[in-house]
Amino acid sequence: MADTTASSSGANCMEKLKSYVRTQKGFILAAEILISLIVLICYAASRYGGYSAVAICEMIFAIVFFGIFMMELDKQIQVVNWVWSDLFRAGIGAVLYIITSLICVIGGAGDGARIAGG
Question: Which end of the chain has fewer CB within 10 Å, C or N?
């Protein structure tokens, strides 16, 4: 009996994931997670792996916000203004990605993975 409730809650979570990815915000967050993973792989393959910290942080923040919005916890936790916090997260992430991308593209002579990450 306990197995059926555990599998139904897992199926419920999977259904929420599928339905949230179909929304515009869910698709954007999922694409951001995927792009962060690709950038992380490129930075990790380069000689200077320290730049991968930006991709790791941005991917973790995107996963956290994806989980919060997918499970509709933003409607339950009213203390935080989730729209503004998501906007600030995306803005700070974009600025950090632009800065590290410029550094990697300008100074990445001879390191193809670093240039690809940038």
Answer: N
